[in-house]
Design goal:
Layout lengths: L2 H24 L6 H8 L3 H7 L3 H12 L2 H7 L6 H17 L5 H10 L1 H26 L6 H23 L5 H12 L11
Helix pairs in contact: 1-2, 1-4, 2-3, 4-7, 4-8, 5-6, 5-8, 6-10, 7-8, 8-9, 9-10
Length: 196
Amino acid sequence: MGLREMKAARTRQQLVDVAVTTFIDQGYDETTMERIAELAEVGTSTLYRYFPSKELLLLAPYAEVVDPGRYLRARPVSEPTGVALAGALLDLGDDYADPSRRIPEIRRILDSSPVPRARVWDVLLQSRADLEAALAERMGLPATDHSVQISAGIALDVFYRVDEERKSGDREDYRALFREALASLSTTTIVLPVLP
């Protein structure tokens, strides 16, 4: 990464950090892009160049974490695909729960703000496509293969179940929740639709 790219990445991260802190402290709807630019000590044109909308600022850290394909690619190539996929979900859970990332707080804002909540679907669709591509590479199949797509769907369903369980309960240990959910797969009866 060159100097220009490093500076751009630092600026981008600074903008996200300031925005997320301000959204949490002052409220998403109450926070303006102008206020974020002022607190980040940049011009509004600089802010809009990096993030054309407020919801993209809020979604940036969420989208970075909720990307199991990225975690799967980081797993050792020597790992069997199922083990690597489980490890990717556990790694995602660790980052999701990392207090410095503030993902649970961001998620609460997303759940209560209609505009960014609607954009979460874009993030999740992109996340699924990326996971399918990463799985396809590991499995030696095209991303459009049903084995790839169904495997990705099951892995993402585990993530959704864990996230919902954490939101509805008082448990914060994502790794333990993921381990329980993954362990339950070996005793779960999965019914596939079959033609008569």
